[in-house]
Amino acid sequence: MKVTAHRLFGHRHILREIQHVAPSAAELVRRSVRGRLPRTNIVLTTPQGLTELSVQTEIALLGGTVTPKARTQAEREMRWADRSVFGKAVLAPKGAVLVLLNARKVNHGNQVAPTLVHELVHAMQFTRPGITDLILAGLRDSYGLEPMLRRDERRYERQLKAHEDEAYRMEDRLTPQLNAYPA
Ligand SMILES: [Zn+2]
C-alpha cells in the first residue's frame, strides 16, 4: 500500500506512523470484513487537498466528461465536509481505492489506527456486488450528468448509512486489536 503526502511539507513523523500501521490494519480488516481488499493508495493531505483529489478521482472514474460548472459545484458542496472529516475513501478507476487522510485531524499517532481501519472498511465495501454501480449513479447525479431516480436515491442513502454504521462498528472492534499488534 503506497502512502504519500499531497500539498504538505514535513509531517514525516505521522507519515511514518501511517506507513507502519497500514499493513497490519489492512490485514486485520481483510480478515474481518466481507468483500475483498482492493488496490489502495493512501494520501495524507490538507482539507483543500481532500476536495481536490476527491473531485479529480471521481471525474476520472466517470470518464472525464464533466462541465467546469458541475465541477465547481461539486467542489463547493464537498469543501465544507472535508474540513471536518478525519478521512474518506474514494472509488478510483480500475477498481482501485484512494484513502484520503485529513492532516489537520489525523495529526497524532492515536488517530491513525481508527481512521485507517474505518476507511479500509469502506474500501472493502466498494468491492461488494452492485456497489460500484450505485456509486457511479450517485456520481452521475452529483456531477449533473444524469439525475438519480427517487427510488435509487433512497436505496443509495440507505446503503451509505449501513456502510457508515458498519465502518464505525469495525473501527471500535478492530482498533484495540491493532494496538495490541507488536510493533
Ligand atoms: Zn465513513
Topology as H/E string? EHEHHEEHHH
- Give the helix tally: 6
Q: In this structure, how is the largest beta sheet organized?
A: 4 strands, mixed
Strand percentage: 5-15%
User: What would you call the structural class?
Assistant: alpha/beta
Helix content: 55-70%
Mean pLDDT over all positions? 94
N-to-C span: 18 Å
Strand order of the largest sheet: 1-2-4-3
Spans of at least 5 consecutive residues with low confidence = none
Q: What hetero molecules are bound to the protein chains?
A: zinc ion
Structure in words:
The chain has helices at residues 12-32, 47-62, 68-84, 109-125, 131-142, 150-179, and strands at 2-6, 40-45, 87-91, 97-102. It has 183 residues and is of the alpha/beta class. It has one domain (2-179). Strands 1-2-4-3 form a 4-stranded mixed β-sheet, with helices on both faces. The longest helix is centred in the C-terminal third of the chain and has 30 residues, at 150-179. It is globular, with a radius of gyration of 16 Å. It starts with a strand and ends with a helix. The model has no long low-confidence stretch (mean pLDDT 94). The structure holds zinc ion.
Question: In brief, what are we looking at here?
Answer:
This protein has 183 residues and is α/β, with parallel strands linked by helices. It is built from 6 helices and 4 strands. Helices cover 62% and strands 12% of the residues.
Q: What key attributes describe this structure?
A:
single chain, 183 residues, alpha/beta, 6 helices, 62% helix, binds zinc ion
